TrEMBL record:
Positions of region (Disordered): 391-416
EC class name: oxidoreductase
Protein name: Anaerobic sulfatase-maturating enzyme
Cofactor(s) for this UniProt protein: [4Fe-4S] cluster
Organism: Blastochloris viridis
Length: 416
């Protein structure tokens, strides 16, 4: 069996039924009723000027570009799908979104205004930064877009993997993008991808991001069998993940002026509150995200885009109910419940819910546990212990005595 046939067989195994009209109505209802924000990952092109070694985007070089028809049909589908939610987060992704002309984004904003009157709409561009111009920055600043760059820590680590077609590293150009954004007071965030090199140098990565004053999200490399990203060179084991994330957590936790580091802000918040946030923690991500490819293909997640076995339909041909009726979608929406068997007895289940379905697919079963399960488990144990120690230390420290003789007696002061 070739790799594609094996993957199709796997999807068929986890999707043994055809959704009935009742299932479709139930799915539509669950999507409309979710209490998490909904995000659409829009891939306006699969074209990219970089050749990052670990990149999961398939078909690079096809140079597909999203047309106005696809843009409009995507938005119409989303407005039908989301019902009364009236909130939508657009993530402009790719390929490289800034390989599209600025007029594409102007058109997108005009369509958003037309098709989502009164909705809460926001936009984020996820970019490699190398094509960013002052015109982009002015447009994004004026329209309230947020910008996230891809920066893999210090220059030597970044330039190992994030290269132009001629093999030259892209770091210098990314730092120019940071300066351009800051000149317009535009906030800058970043995604760091954890490769074995990044894991082995995690302290240097944190110090660099801190020097740059850039909040970041760190994700381990996702490798799916048969992809170019699946080279053993990029393989991060659950043990590498645990060691690096625990070290990173300690740096962050002990920092006097920490950055905002995802997933730590999320994990700590999830541990101490009732609601669980973050797509790879709350277990219902597939109700809250969808991805549209340049040709209008719809996929359950950005990392699955372009893979025929995960295609749910096409915005030019299929309406929202037809997309919900894709059998694989119905099964994936149930992952939280179906996947729970694999996580039976785990004391972190409330805040982990089996992790990310795409990372679970690294083991060949989207309904199973996240590939990094063992690493996540150790990280959660560690974070929990550190929070408990901190709370105990604070509880044992007497509060400072109230100051006497001061001005404040708790009563409002007369003005002037
Ligand atoms: C696919 S890129 C598209 C947007 C843009 N070209 C960029 O690089 O930011 C989106 C993000 O996915 C990350 N990424 C690419 N391949 C990955 C992989 N195999 N595992 C995890 N993240 C990956 C990139 O580093 C980037 O931060
Ligand atoms: S810049 Fe983004 S899309 Fe392009 S190769 Fe790198 S990770 Fe992939
Ligand atoms: S840590 Fe592992 S076993 Fe526990 S819920 Fe997460 S994926 Fe499941």
């Amino acid at each position: 069996m070739n790799a594609d046939a094996a993957r199709q067989a796997e999807v068929a195994r986890t999707a043994p039924f055809q959704a009935s009209p009742n299932d479709v109505a139930a799915i539509a209802n669950r999507i409309a009723c979710s209490d998490h924000p909904f995000a659409v990952i829009m891939k306006p092109t699969d074209k990219c000027n970089l050749r990052c070694g670990y990149c999961y985007v398939p078909h690079r070089g096809h140079h597909l570009r999203m047309t106005r028809d696809v843009l409009k049909a995507s938005m119409s589908m989303l407005s039908a799908m989301l019902g009364w939610r009236r909130q939508l987060h657009f993530i402009w992704h790719g390929g490289e979104p800034l390989a599209m002309p600025l007029s594409f984004f102007e058109e997108a904003v005009a369509l958003q205004r037309e098709l989502f009157p009164g909705w809460f709409i926001d936009n984020c561009v996820q970019t490699n930064g190398t094509l960013l111009t002052p015109e982009h920055v002015a447009f994004f600043a004026d329209r309230g877009f947020s910008v996230s760059l891809s920066i893999d820590g210090p220059a030597d680590l970044h330039d190992k993997n994030r290269t132009f077609a001629n093999g030259r590293g892209s770091y210098r150009r990314v730092l120019e993008a940071v300066s351009l954004l800051r000149e317009r007071n535009q906030a800058v965030g970043a995604v760091v991808v954890m490769t074995p090199d990044i894991a082995a140098n995690i302290e240097r990565v944190y110090r660099t991001m801190r020097e740059l004053r850039i909040n970041f999200r760190i994700n381990p490399v996702i490798q799916i069998a048969g992809d170019r990203s699946a080279s053993p060179r990029y393989a991060v084991t659950p043990d590498d993940y645990a060691q690096a994330m625990i070290a990173l957590f300690d740096l962050w936790f002990e920092d006097d002026v920490p950055l905002h580091v995802d997933p730590f802000n999320l994990i700590v918040g999830n541990m101490i509150s009732d609601t669980v946030w973050g797509c790879d923690y709350h277990g219902g991500c597939l109700r809250d995200v969808i991805c549209v490819d340049p040709d209008g293909g719809v996929y359950p997640c950005g990392q699955l885009a372009g893979r025929p076995e995960f295609r749910l339909g096409n915005v030019l041909k299929d309406d929202a109910p037809a997309i919900f009726a894709a059998p694989m979608y119905a099964r994936l929406l149930d992952r939280r419940h179906l996947g729970i068997a694999a996580c039976e007895g785990c004391h972190h289940r409330r805040i982990c819910n089996g992790g990310c379905p795409v990372a679970a697919y690294m083991r060949g079963d989207m309904l199973g546990r996240d590939y990094f399960c063992e690493g996540r488990h150790r990280l959660f144990d560690h974070i929990r212990r550190r929070i408990e120690e901190d709370v105990a230390r604070q509880a044992a420290t007497p509060l400072p005595a109230p100051r006497t003789g001061g001005q404040c007696d708790g009563r409002p002061r007369p003005a002037g």
